[in-house]
Amino acid sequence: MMGQERVPIRRLCMIVIGLGAAIASEVALGQEPCEQIRLACQSAGFVQGGARGGIGLQVDCIDPIMQGTAQPRKASTPLPQVDPQIVAACKAKNPGFGQPRAQSAVSGEQLTPPTPPLSAAGGPGTPPPVPSTATGRPNIVFILTDDLSWNLVQFMPHVLKMQLDGVTFTNYFVTDSLCCPSRSSIFTGRYPHETGIFRNTGTDGGYLAFVNRGHERATFATALSMAGYRTAMLGKYLNGYLPARHPAAPGWTAWAVAGNGYPEFNYNLLQDGKVVHYGGNPADYLTDVLSGLAVGFIKQTPNQPFLIEVATFAPHAPYTPAPRDVEAFPGLRAPKTPAFDAAPDADAAKWLTRHRSLTDADVAGIDRDFRKRAQSVLAVDKMIGDLQVALASIGQEKNTYLIFSSDNGYHMGEHRLMPGKMTAYDTDIRVPLIVTGPGVPAGGTIQAIVENTDLCPTFTELAGVAPPANVDGRSLVPLLHGQEANEWRTAALVEHHGPVKDRADPDMPGMRSGNPPTYEAMRMQTSVYVEYADGTKEYHDLVADPHELRNTFSSLSSQQRASLHSALDALASCHDAKSCWAAGHVSVGMTPR
Length: 593
Fold this sequence. Notes:
593 residues, alpha/beta, Alkaline Phosphatase, subunit A, Arylsulfatase, C-terminal domain, ten-stranded mixed sheet, 16 strands, globular
């Protein structure tokens, strides 16, 4: 049965968390010898731009290995063990690799890129396409959007075509409807109560909290890079990341990451060790720049598999469309579901009852912003088409998994709330997950309960490697390849810390956008159950109440209430794949008395 067996995983290497050295001979069998050395250094924790902190990829690791010298005195991480035969082979193939050279003006680190520099398609430094001979291992292209809700997919023709060519997960949920906690779960495969990342800022959220807890060393990127994959992180990383201050994360071959990219213009990228400024010209539109960089990475890739994460800032506020799309969708208005401007019922959560009815000006603003959001995803959709063309140009379109998703959803007028997120309602926690690729049946729909914690183990299994230790999620590979979802989990866990009060947080909600207190929730196939820190409990029967307008918790029996609380408590305290998988199988008789 699905819940009891896993598709066999071809182990190429063992990821050992916390080990300062890696054995190069176990890295990427069959890879170029110089690339093996670079990957061994990267997997040991050395990064480009990290020389000032004693973890410089070049000066603190590659150079000492290749020159047979001691590390610089300020080096803070020991060298990985590398087979001398690999070093000799590298010197024979590339005599200049790891030898003295000019220093980077940005970081002070000597840079010896093992492959051509990351550049936009057609720009300087882009070599002609390299035909790929299939390695037997698939490529993975992950498109992660920001605040994209299901009601925007209709404006994305390439995504709609992906639905025809692949599978759509109709019950895919995020662990928190907030950027940094959700992205942390994606990278690590772990719930917020495991990562400790519940916010975008502060001691329990943001980039620094993620780094300080050691999570950067145990992501799908570190696992795949150890197995010889070329990896590229492009766009948005984690809230609080500053390109001029922070280095690239371990596990990424190429790195082009922004800090404040929300306006889509006038931003900086840390682009392979150098801070590059983009201005206000149409060619600087961030989504288009990321598209060009991704296409360039694909065409630069030699005969080895790759993973790309393109994390757009679109369609996050201020909802900036590409200049070419500013006139698109004239007269478009936001959808008006039964939840739009719906008054809270008598048993609604306390935080929700304070919201008054929307005014005509409110509705006009929501309509205007919804149109801008629809316009802004056109560039994302165009990017998907460009990536598909690039994959075809190197003969890898049939050997690549293309995954489209969002970090969280977005409400616009539902429940009388002005635009925002963070609630446990489906508008905010249920987002698209659409996948095409080898062995994925065309036009499929999967209704199983899946979460963003499942992406990390999915990517590692697709690559044939073991996931990082202590993941909470479950690989979706069996579902992608057509197996029935028998014995699959029946509940998704959602965890949120609130209210958000940091005005420096780009997701700081407006007064009427919804800013719920801390809560834990379970989203099941036909219901949702929420426990708030203020003692309020919320239950919606999604068959009778699909728009979540009537809180029927008071109609449940005491036994049903106790069962729901016990099940949620088990999920919110699980600590690894086995216990979280067991806790996710919730069976509670929920017919109201």
